[in-house]
Amino acid sequence: MSTEIESRYAVGPNEVKGYDTQQLRDEFLVDKLMQVDKIYWLYTHYERFMVGSAVPTAGALTLETLDNLKAAHFLNGRELGIINVGGRGTVTADNETFELNYKDALYIGKESKNVTFKSCDNTNPAKFYLNSAPAHHKYPNKRVTRNDANVLHLGALETSNERDINQMLINTVVKTCQLQMGLTELKPGSVWNTMPAHQHDRRNEVYFYFEIPEHQAVCHFMGEPTETRHLWIHNEQAVVSPAWSIHSGSGTQNYSFIWGMAGENLDYDDMDKYQPHELR
Prior knowledge:
Elements: E1 3-8, H1 13-16, H2 21-28, E2 29-30, E3 39-44, E4 50-54, E5 61-62, E6 78-84, E7 89-93, E8 96-100, E9 105-108, E10 115-119, E11 128-134, E12 142-144, E13 150-154, E14 163-169, E15 180-186, E16 192-193, E17 197-199, E18 203-210, E19 218-224, E20 227-233, E21 237-241, E22 246-251, E23 256-263, E24 272-274
Parallel strand pairs: 1-3
Antiparallel strand pairs: 2-21, 3-4, 4-11, 5-10, 6-9, 6-11, 7-8, 7-10, 9-12, 13-14, 14-15, 15-23, 16-22, 17-24, 18-21, 18-23, 19-20, 19-22
């Protein structure tokens, strides 16, 4: 079968206080992404957010509906965000075909019925990173390149967090119901992301880490601001951040990551920030 899905229920901060390392990884780490010739999904009960991947080499992969959705088509009541982190590929949604180069994004709106993923060169396959959230309205499909993104230049080399935040699938660039996605790139010599750390009480977030060199890693920090925990993340793995958790990380070398979120509103700056000296 070309599609695999797992499901995880939501847990609260009181339960997580007693988790050991393996329990934290089992609950929040997404380590089965980018399987060749397979669409993989993790269905979470945080905002019914789904995180997944599609890596076509032998031929096109089709976005199939799943028993978890109880719907005739995957996008009957959902929207889909895609960012390509591999070779050049195409995504076809009904009668529209979009070519995605490295780090290009695509939004596919509710009610698209036939969606397929294909690599242009099977020896250098596309790696489509996928996020999906429930949707109440059909908005037009739209490709967003990095040249189309709204770019925020934040941080400094002196604080080891100089970075570019490429806002790609957000409401100032493309119309969505609740899904937002973007791409953060750390400059050489910088390793800290998302400082000051923050929570989104009105939405969840998922970080997908990539461009982590071989034998390097990122230490991702999560948990309540005064009850932090950490997970060691390797290349092309993701971590789920509940609304009650901060999400921040520091790598052994610079890297990039994709952030995706959904929830109560589309205000990108809706966050409760905590300065480094406030964390425990």
